Amino acid sequence: MAVTEASLLRQCPLLLPQNRSKTVYEGFISAQGRDFHLRIVLPEDLQLKNARLLCSWQLRTILSGYHRIVQQNAALS
């Protein structure tokens, strides 16, 4: 199922589209009491499950323990 702008913004309200085709989003998310920069790059078919998450090594370390949950949420969107 393709991600819609509304569903992505509902889940991550501090992420904003960076291009007209809305395949790149950038902004901030909070984790463990800190704010982290995050960039999401969607493939041309807009499948969230195939998105690339670009972030700092600190956020990557935090998210590594939640890999299955991140994948599950992408599949549900």
Describe the structure.
Residues 6-73 form the Fanconi anemia complex subunit FancL WD-repeat containing domain. InterPro entries: Fancl, FancL_WD-rpt_cont_dom. Pfam families: FANCL_d1. This is FA complementation group L. By secondary structure, the chain is an alpha+beta fold. It has three helices and four strands; from the N terminus they run αββββαα. Strands 1-2-3-4 form a four-stranded antiparallel beta sheet, covered by helices on one side. A hairpin with a 6-residue loop joins strand 1 and strand 2 (24-31). The longest helix is centred in the C-terminal third of the chain and has 10 residues, at 67-76. It starts with a helix and ends with a helix.
